[in-house]
Known about the structure:
The chain has 60 residues and is of the alpha+beta class. The protein is built from 3 helices and 2 strands; from the N terminus they run E-E-H-H-H. The protein has helices at residues 18-32, 34-39, 42-58; strands at 2-5, 12-15. Strand 1 and strand 2 form a beta hairpin. It is globular and about 30 Å long. The structure holds zinc ion. Zinc ion is lined by residues 6, 8-9, 11, 28, 32-33.
Amino acid sequence: MKTITCLDCDEQFSGETPEQVQMAMLPHYKESHAEIIGSVDEDGKKKWMEEFRVRWDAAK
Ligand SMILES: [Zn+2]
């Protein structure tokens, strides 16, 4: 189980796999970061995934 802080605020999400944490984050993004979801492009998604992976690997 790892806990990852939202890339765009201080809320935290836990899961056994990166996919679980991302699935937990999705409703939060839709609710709290709708403008990011609505405006992100492919490059932005790639950067988000890279940053998520860095945080995942760093998390205990
Ligand atoms: Zn957030």
